[in-house]
Amino acid sequence: MRSGTLNRSEDERFLAMALSLGRRGQGQTWPNPAVGCVIVREGRVVGRGWTQPGGRPHAEVVALAQAGSAARGSTAYVSLEPCAHHGKTPPCAEALIEAGVARVVAPLEDLDPRVEGKGFDRLRAAGIEVSTGMLASEAAKDHAGFFLRQAHGRPFVTLKLALSLDGRIATATGESQWITGPEARRDVHAMRARHDAVMVGAGTARIDDPSLTVRGLGVTRQPVRVVVSRRLDLPLMGQLARTAKDIPVWICHGKDADHALVDAWQGLGAKLLSCEVSGRQLDIASVLQALGAAGLTRVFCEGGGALAATLLGADLVDELVVMSAGLLLGAEGRPGIGALGIDRLAEAPRLTLVESRQVGKDVMTRWKRPDN
What we know:
alpha/beta; disordered N terminus
């Protein structure tokens, strides 16, 4: 029995549900995309799922297992084209065919060259009706990191800054805990959890001795902790060093780094990524390419000012999140963004405001690149 085509409003509602489910896996599924799936028969949801931590099982498999025999004749709403290749598990397109699904609604093609339309072709060849294009822009935003890695070899980069009203991240003496309030900090932990990795520069790692973990949210799979440090001049007794065997620490360093330090950090359990050097610092494009090659799709950068300036100067910030607190630190405070070498306003990076809301006593603004 084939399911009748639902009207557009119902299709949008169930596909939006699949997109929402997919977002639950963000930060947990790399290098695979975070996909959601809803199985609907006669207007009733009979199965739902999202890609599980580590990238398997895939969303369709989870939803089909929940639906059981009710999947026959149903419509499957999937937030990305079902995979068509044999990896560690059989392709999801085959699973949908074998379950007897009558119709598949998905917003867009998977850019992975192993799929890229082949999943849809396989479904159509099996007599399954395939509808695409609905909520495509929303899905493209959700999968932006996965798509960037496929197309350009790098992850999506979110830069977060916690600033005073006059744009400072610390006092002149370096005191920075805490500029923002507890509500804003909790929001930041939730943002960390939705990314594959949290990244900081060597200065932040030395001065703040951060743990870079997600706390207070019951998260069991922590993001990778990434430090950008050309010379590996990082504290060997700091929090990152002490916990590297338990929670992943990756260090992007220059090819000219001291071999003894490379060996020391590897002995502590860290993963070392050798990157190109540009002038006196690491080439940030090389850093992101190395992270993409290692499987990361979404990186949450928390500074400091020098790394923020480097990313902005290279036009490699896809999203900027600013937490603004109601305090003033003055010109002697440390700026949130280092020198950009801008002489004219026309040279300044310009971003588009996406969201603005109050978080406790602070204000969060979210900005994107104009072409995103």
